[in-house]
Amino acid sequence: MLFLVAALLLMGVVLGTVAHAPLTVSAVGGAVIALWLAVFALRERHTPIDRES
Q1: Which residues are listed as membrane-spanning (predicted)?
Q2: Quick check: 16 and 27 in contact, CB under 8 A?
Q3: CA separation for the pair 37, 8 (Å, rounded)
Q4: Which terminus in the chain has less CB density within 10 A, N or C?
């Protein structure tokens, strides 16, 4: 429950910051996050799964 409250608080702070930032800053930040998620997805897809059972 505490994690959920912290996540919602952080989301509110980030969205409040984006509302006051210029559009180019928001677009660059969004592109960086999208690239990070794409790299993470590719690494997860190509990482072999070690099953010991």
Answers
A1: 26-42
A2: no
A3: 20
A4: C
Contacts of 21 (CB under 8 A, 6+ apart): 29
In tens, the pLDDT along 8-17 reads 888 888 788 7
Q: What is the pTM of this model?
A: 0.58
* Residue 29 burial (CB count, 10 A): 14
Measured in whole angstroms, the distance separating CA 1 from the mean position of its chain's CA atoms is 20
Residue linked to tokens 């010991």: 52
Is residue 19 within 8 A of residue 11, CB to CB? The reply is: no
